[in-house]
């Protein structure tokens, strides 16, 4: 029951949190910024609209948003949000989930290529490239977590007896993982310094350019998928921090969302104070976390016998 | 055993029928296809029922030419490898009914069917052979028949060259194989396979490496793969399908059989296989990404999948030497399952490429586009195959990779070198998965989606009925294996039950996980349907317009402005540059009023470059210097013979 409640709450709150990023950026820019509920308004607006489809597109173009949104939802279904256990969980679920995310990407890329637009082709090529690099880091993290906890599921990673928490015995390693995962989060969710959601050229960059031709409810589904994905990654980071344990479900939920909100604020801060990288620098940036994780994994060779 | 041989006889009879009915084109095709397929189906039923039953190994031998013994032995590994042989062959044959339509080439088609039957039978003999003589006979028969299949269109010069290259690699590999067998014979004095393990530990590693290279040239491990991307575009598509889907797996079978027979104690064997697998996997997929010819791309993708299979085998072998039973079990099982899965989706993709080639008259991605609307069935099945080969759930490719991952994760609890290897294997698999996604979004996205780039692509229509039916069937199988993997996983478990070290591993816990995977896949499909329905609901009574793609206000878009295969892959290729050299020809702009300027770029195979530089060219030089031996004077040739006989007499 708590699991289902927690999941529903996450879905409902997912559109709210990105507004926090916008607010933070507005604060740095000395502006008032959009209202916190902006994304709900956007959703309602998009849901009310119809769509215009390019004559070049086929059914794949319409499948892209659906599959993308479904894969992001799957992540939240299997992730132990707040204090609750996930709705579904089994040993090995992380593998299928990260691969499902790959499936979402597969269809997003195809939908972009379906428009026959050179812009979207460029975005698709970048998305395909950068995600292969990020994937290496993600699986490096899974190896390390397996080494630390002996498990392969989100629920077991963050069970109360697990070693994967900053307050546990492997703080130093997990700090490295935290930084690595943070960078992966920025990459996978198309944030600065990899991509710019405000998209000011370098031919419109990655995520935003891929969805140029989507409109109406299709676009709403894409946005929802993106918000769920961002929530998943920040929840992942939050569970690693996990400095305090609360027995009470409500207290731990409160604490959880406080940390999540804080992570969103940091994303906003990063976006306000750093410039986007030049495209040819991005691969190096994405490989940095892999180096960190690999180093952390090598360290475990002597630490854990 | 008798059933199996009956099946083989029927298959060969089907091939002979083709030669008989050569004057009646359609009758010939029907007769061959029906007869050979019947043989295959009998064989398939035989192998699956024996694989799942609890039969002990079956042996049989005959005397041949009073001196040699032809010995056959069927254990679970043989049976498992028989499954893809007998599954893909009838499908490829059915596909060929509408693919081989040129009545002017009737004789050639008949010969093609004949060698097809020989190839199928010889592959079945390869996996059942139990001594060197039998094995070598079957192996050579397989290489030769497939050579004739490749050079179907022998008038085209490139095809002859491709066939020649394949022949060199097949025979070069066989030469190393014979060396390995000769060494073994030197120690055991027997042709029998079962005597291999009795040789001393010392030479085992050398023998394995020789055999590994020999079999590897058939399987297409890096850098012995260069015949694949040449032979596959040359061969007819159903031949590519059977060669890439099934025949190269005979190399895998050989490697694995040799490993089991030698039973060496050194951990190096597993480590070599694993590292070679990783290199093959990554470079295979990067080259696949770099190629614009669909069939060439698929050939490189076969190299990649051989890499994945070797990673699985390597994980298993490392598991054996590390005494990690779970790691060994899942490594081997994953490799086996991937052999089966790959045979299906790779055949499907080659058949799709064949249909495209037939109807759009091109296999170059940069000349295609928009085929999803013109060839919907080919497009959709190709899409399914692409998702499967990228290893994405809920399709079949994921299941095999999942088993390999699972084994590799067990390896993470090892120490030192095996530990590092396990990590590298996991990360490599992840990277291969990502690159495969990039590679197949490229094919589907550029060849099937968007706008047609040429007139011919715009005029393409759906291929014939038999072609479509086969592709639909295979696409469904890919999905079924992904959603209901249990029987197929059991099949691969049954395949490895003769391996002594992993025998008796308790799979109950794992089967629970398999159930969960199956449920997750089904749930995911349900979720996609649900969101799809939601989307339908949201679009109800809405205005849906259509117009051109948004082009930033540009009013004169042309289809040539679309992203091309080259531009899509450019950044990724650049990242792997030292291993994937790109050659650019640019005439440059050097006058005030520039004339015609050309720019083209192509990716060259690094293995090919090095072969040329360090093997072919020096060899040609030496041979050129020896030309005086061949002077065309018959009396001197006779003198050579006499001289040779005298020297031999003195020596012996």
Describe this structure in words.
The complex is a heterodimer of chains A (305) and B (652). Chain A is an all-alpha fold and 305 residues long. Chain A is 69% helix and 1% strand. Chain A has 12 helices and 1 strand; from the N terminus they run αααβααααααααα. In chain A, α2 (16-29) packs across α11, α5 runs antiparallel to α6 (118-149) and α8 packs antiparallel against α12. Helices cover 71% and strands 4% of the residues of chain B. In chain B, the strands form 2 sheets. A two-stranded antiparallel sheet of chain B has the order 1-2. In chain B, a hairpin with a 3-residue loop joins β1 (58-64) and β2 (68-74).
Secondary-structure-derived class of chain B:
mainly alpha
Query: What is the element string of chain A, with H for helices and E for strands?
Result: HHHEHHHHHHHHH
Which spans of chain B have pLDDT < 50 for at least 5 consecutive residues?
Answer: none
What is the alpha-carbon Rg of chain A in Å? 19 Å
Report the helical percentage of chain A. 55-70%
Number of spatially distinct domains of chain B: 3
Count of individual helical segments of chain B: 23
Q: Mean pLDDT of chain A, rounded to whole units?
A: 88
User: Largest interface, with Cβ-Cβ < 8 Å?
Assistant: A-B, 80 and 80 residues
If helices are DSSP runs of H or I spanning 4 or more residues, what is the number of helices of chain A? 12
The total tally of domains of chain A equals 1
Low-confidence stretches of chain A: none
Summing up helix and strand content along with how strands pair, one would put the structural category of chain A as mainly alpha
């Amino acid at each position: 029951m708590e699991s289902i409640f927690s999941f529903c709450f996450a879905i409902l709150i997912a559109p709210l949190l990105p507004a926090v990023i916008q607010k933070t950026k507005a604060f740095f820019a000395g502006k008032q910024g959009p209202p916190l509920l902006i994304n709900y308004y956007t959703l309602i607006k998009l849901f009310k609209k119809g769509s215009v489809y390019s004559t070049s597109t086929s059914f794949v173009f319409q499948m892209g948003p659906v599959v993308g949104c479904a894969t992001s939802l799957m992540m939240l279904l299997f992730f132990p949000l707040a204090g609750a256990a996930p709705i579904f969980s089994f040993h090995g679920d992380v593998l299928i989930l990260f691969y499902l995310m790959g499936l979402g990407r597969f269809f997003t890329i195809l939908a972009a290529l379906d428009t026959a637009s050179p812009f979207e082709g460029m975005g698709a090529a970048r998305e395909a490239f950068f995600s292969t690099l990020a994937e290496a880091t993600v699986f490096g993290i899974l190896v390390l977590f397996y080494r630390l906890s002996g498990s392969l599921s989100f629920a077991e990673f963050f069970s109360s007896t697990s070693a994967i928490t900053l307050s546990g015995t492997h703080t130093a390693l997990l700090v490295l993982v935290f930084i690595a995962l943070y960078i992966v989060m920025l990459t996978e969710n198309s944030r600065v310094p990899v991509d710019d959601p405000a998209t000011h050229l370098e031919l419109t960059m990655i995520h935003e350019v891929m969805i140029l031709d989507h409109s109406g409810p299709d676009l709403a589904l894409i946005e929802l998928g993106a918000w769920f994905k961002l929530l998943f990654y920040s929840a992942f980071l939050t569970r690693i921090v996990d400095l305090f344990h609360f027995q009470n479900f409500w207290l731990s939920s409160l604490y959880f969302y406080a940390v999540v909100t804080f992570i969103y604020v940091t994303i906003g801060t990063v976006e306000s104070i750093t410039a986007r990288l030049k495209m040819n620098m991005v691969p190096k940036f994405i490989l940095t976390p892999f180096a960190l994780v690999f180093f952390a994994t090598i360290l475990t060779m002597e630490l854990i016998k | 055993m008798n059933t199996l041989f009956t099946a083989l006889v029927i298959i060969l009879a089907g091939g002979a029928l083709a030669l008989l009915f050569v004057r009646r084109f359609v009758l010939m095709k029907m007769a061959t296809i029906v007869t050979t397929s019947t043989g295959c189906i009998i064989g398939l039923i035989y192998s699956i029922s024996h694989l799942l039953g609890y039969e002990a190994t079956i042996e049989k031998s005959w005397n041949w030419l009073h001196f040699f013994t032809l010995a056959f032995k069927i254990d679970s590994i043989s049976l498992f490898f028989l499954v893809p042989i007998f599954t893909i062959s009838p499908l490829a044959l059915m596909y060929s009914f509408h693919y081989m339509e040129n009545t002017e080439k009737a004789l050639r088609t008949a010969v093609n069917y004949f060698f097809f039957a020989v190839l199928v039978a010889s592959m079945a003999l390869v996996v059942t052979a139990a001594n060197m003589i039998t094995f070598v006979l079957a192996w050579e028969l397989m290489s030769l028949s497939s050579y004739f299949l490749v050079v179907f269109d022998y008038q085209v010069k490139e095809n002859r060259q491709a066939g020649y290259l394949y022949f060199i690699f097949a025979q070069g590999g066989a030469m190393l194989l014979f060396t390995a067998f000769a060494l073994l014979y030197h120690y055991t004095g027997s042709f029998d396979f079962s005597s291999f393990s009795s040789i001393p530990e010392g030479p085992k590693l050398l023998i394995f490496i020789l055999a590994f290279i020999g079999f590897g040239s058939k399987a297409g491990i890096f850098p012995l793969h260069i015949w694949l991307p040449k032979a596959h575009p040359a061969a007819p598509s159903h031949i590519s399908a059977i060669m890439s889907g099934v025949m190269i797996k005979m190399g895998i079978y050989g490697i694995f059989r040799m490993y089991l027979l030698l039973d060496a104690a050194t951990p190096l064997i597993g480590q070599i296989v694993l590292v070679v697998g990783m290199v093959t996997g990554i470079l295979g997929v990067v080259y696949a990404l770099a190629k614009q010819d669909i069939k060439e791309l698929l050939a490189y993708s076969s190299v990649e999948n051989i890499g994945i299979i070797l990673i699985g085998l390597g994980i298993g072998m490392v598991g054996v030497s590390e005494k990690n039973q779970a790691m060994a079990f899942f490594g081997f099982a994953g490799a086996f399952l991937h052999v089966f899965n790959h045979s299906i989706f790779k055949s499907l993709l080659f058949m799709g490429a064949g249909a495209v080639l037939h109807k759009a008259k091109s296999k170059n991605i940069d000349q295609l586009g928009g085929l999803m609307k013109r060839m919907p069935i080919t497009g959709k099945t190709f899409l399914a195959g692409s998702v499967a080969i990228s290893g994405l759930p809920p399709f079949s490719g994921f299941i095999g990779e999942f088993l390999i991952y699972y084994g590799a994760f067990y390896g993470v609890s090892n120490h030192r070198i095996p530990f590092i290897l396990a990590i590298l294997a996991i990360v490599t698999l992840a990277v291969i998965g990502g690159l495969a996604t990039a590679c197949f979004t490229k094919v589907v996205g550029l060849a099937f989606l968007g706008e047609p780039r040429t007139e011919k692509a715009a005029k393409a229509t759906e291929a014939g009925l038999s072609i479509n039916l086969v592709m639909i069937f295979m696409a469904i199988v890919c999905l079924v294996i992904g959603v209901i993997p249990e029987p197929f996983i059991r099949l691969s478990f049954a395949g490895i039950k003769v391996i002594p070290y992993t025998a008796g591993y308790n799979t109950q816990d794992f089967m629970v996980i398999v159930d969960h995977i199956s449920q997750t896949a089904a749930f995911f499909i349900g979720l996609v349907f649900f969101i799809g329905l939601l989307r339908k609901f949201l679009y109800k009574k809405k205005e849906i317009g259509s117009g051109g793609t948004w082009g930033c206000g540009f009013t004169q878009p042309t289809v040539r402005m679309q992203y091309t295969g080259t531009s899509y892959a450019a950044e990724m290729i650049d990242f792997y540059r030292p291993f994937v050299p790109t050659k650019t020809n640019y005439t440059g702009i050097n006058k005030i009023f520039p004339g015609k300027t050309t720019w083209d770029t192509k990716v060259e195979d690094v293995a090919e470059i090095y072969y040329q530089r360090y093997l072919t060219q020096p060899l040609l030089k030496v041979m050129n210097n020896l030309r005086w031996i061949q002077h065309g004077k018959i009396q001197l040739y006779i003198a050579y013979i006499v001289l040779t006989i005298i020297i031999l007499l003195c020596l012996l």
